[in-house]
Structures are given as C-alpha cells and as structure tokens.
Amino acid sequence: LKTEPSHSSIIQISERVSAGGSELLLIGGPCSVESRAQMDAVASRLSVAGVQALRGGVYKPRTSPYDFQGMGREGLEILAAVRDRTGMPVVTEVMAVSQIEEIAAYADVLQIGSRNMQNFDLLKALGHVDKPILLKRGLAATIEEFVMAAEYILAHGNPNVMLCERGIRSFDTYTRNVLDLGAVVALKQITHLPVIVDPSHAAGKRELVPNLTLAAIAAGADGLIIECHPDPEKSVSDARQALSLDDMVAIVEKVRAIAPIV
Ligand code: PEP
Ligand code: MN
C-alpha cells in the first residue's frame, strides 16, 4: 500500500506552512465564510496569534436542504483575497467532482468532508489535483476504510493527503461525535500521512474544544483544525461549537506551552 509507514510525509501547503514536520499545524476559522469583514476579522487576529492557515466553507454539506448552503464563488473570492492580504493559506471543502477545478483555482488545501469520504469518483479525481487534500474521516468509517479512502487519492497520483479525525457516531449524544484519539495513535503507526484533529466537529460544544485540543497533541496529532468566529453565537452554521477569537487565541497560547508552532 502507498500509505504504509516507511517514512513520515511532510506536506507543503504554502512556501512557509507545512504539515507533518516538527511543528504543529494550526488551522482556524469559521464553519462558513459569511462576509469579507468576517474573514478579515478572523485572519487579522489569528495570523498575529500564530495560527498558520485559515478554514472556511463556501460549499456546505448541510443536513437540511433549507439551511444556508454556502456563498459559493463569492466565498472563494473572499478566501483568496484574505490569503493574498495575510499570506495565510486557505482550506475549503469540495463536495463534488464538478467543483474541483473552480475551488483548486482559489484554495490552497481541498477539504473532503466526512459525508464524502467514500465518494470514490471524487477521491479518484483528487488524485489528479496539484493541491494538498484534507481528508475527513467518515461519520461511521472504520480506520481501515479511512486509510483505504486516502489510498484512493494516492493511487491516482496525488501523494499530498492529510488525514483528519473529526469524531465518529456513537450511542451518546452529549458530544456531537466521539473524538477517536485511538485512531490518531493508530493512524500515525500504520501510515506515513500527517494526522490533523478537528475537535470542533467531534465535540459540538465549544467548552470541550480546549482540552480535546491538548489531548489530540498528546495522542500525536500533527495539527488541529478548529472552528472560531468573531461573533460565535451568530455563526450561520455550527454556532454551538464555534469559539470566540479570544478563546481561539487562548488555545494557541496553551498549545504553545506544550508543542512547537511556528
Ligand atoms: C466542516 O468542516 O465544517 C464540516 C462540515 O466537517 P465534517 O465533514 O467533518 O462534518
Ligand atoms: Mn462546521
């Protein structure tokens, strides 16, 4: 298998930012891009704090078809403008093969959401893309299925895949999902790919995010992707798990005490 751990991959995201090396990769930003002002506020604060990359969805896989579906192209233009202003690479989700070309023209990292982890047509097409992929674990995917999904992208020609543990479904609804830290440990042992943890979608509740972040680092994560918003209660999606920018910066300071950032 191409994912076998004969070495540790370092994935270059921009000239200055990488995943899988000795420094932790921190990605922060809102669930959805909502406006230029929102993204400017997030980027200005996070870049100074030491967060290396920005996240923001513009095509959103919403459970209800009546909920906000994302800004689309206008959102991509905002992400690219904020990247050009701050130098921070941007991560955004691709939901379909038909979106790849458009999104790859704007974004630095293509995120594949949980709901698409086994969209094999999409995975094959990502093999032909010249951008790193952040592959999120399916809602109920086994570790083996997760690794094989990554294998699809590698087998079709793109070696730059980061695995993202974002919690799995269980009987307990107190947390939105269950953060599988055992999977983080295992993935580091059975693959050479960087492992990024998303404590936000795992927890579903902002007050659980700081300590899950620290736990992920202890488990061997190469990076974190965390949702935050200038006005978290007003987030158009995933408001309950969004951190304020103050709380996000506080997490970065806690992380810095235990792991090298940039
Ligand atoms: C997201 O990152 O906002 C998202 C929808 O994540 P997931 O695919 O893990 O649910
Ligand atoms: Mn979200």
For the residues shown, what is the average pLDDT?
98
CATH-defined fold name:
TIM Barrel
N-C termini distance? 32 Å
Supply the CATH class.
Answer: Alpha Beta
Strand portion, in percent? 5-15%
Name the bound molecules.
Answer: phosphoenolpyruvate, manganese (II) ion
**Computed CA radius of gyration, to the nearest angstrom:** 16 Å
Strand order across the biggest sheet?
3-4-5-6-7-8-9-10
- CATH architecture tag: Alpha-Beta Barrel
Number of strands: 10
Major sheet description: 8 strands, parallel, barrel
User: Which class of secondary structure composition applies to the elements?
Assistant: alpha/beta
Domains, number: 1
Q: What kind of oligomer do you see?
A: single chain
Note poorly predicted spans: none
EC number: 2.5.1.54
GO biological process, one term: aromatic amino acid family biosynthetic process
GO molecular function, one term: aldehyde-lyase activity
Protein name: 3-deoxy-7-phosphoheptulonate synthase
Describe it for me?
It is a single chain. The chain is an alpha/beta fold. It has a single domain, classed as TIM Barrel (Alpha-Beta Barrel), CATH 3.20.20. The protein is 35% helix and 14% strand. The strands form two sheets. Strands 3-4-5-6-7-8-9-10 form an eight-stranded parallel barrel, surrounded by five helices. The chain has a two-stranded antiparallel sheet with strand order 1-2. β1 (11-12) and β2 form a beta hairpin. The longest helix has 14 residues, at 36-49. The chain binds phosphoenolpyruvate and manganese (II) ion. The site of phosphoenolpyruvate has 9 residues, from loops. It is an enzyme of class 2 (transferase). InterPro entries: Aldolase_TIM, Class-I_DAHP_synthase, DAHP1/KDSA, DAHP_syn_2. GO terms for molecular function: 3-deoxy-7-phosphoheptulonate synthase activity; aldehyde-lyase activity. This is 3-deoxy-7-phosphoheptulonate synthase.
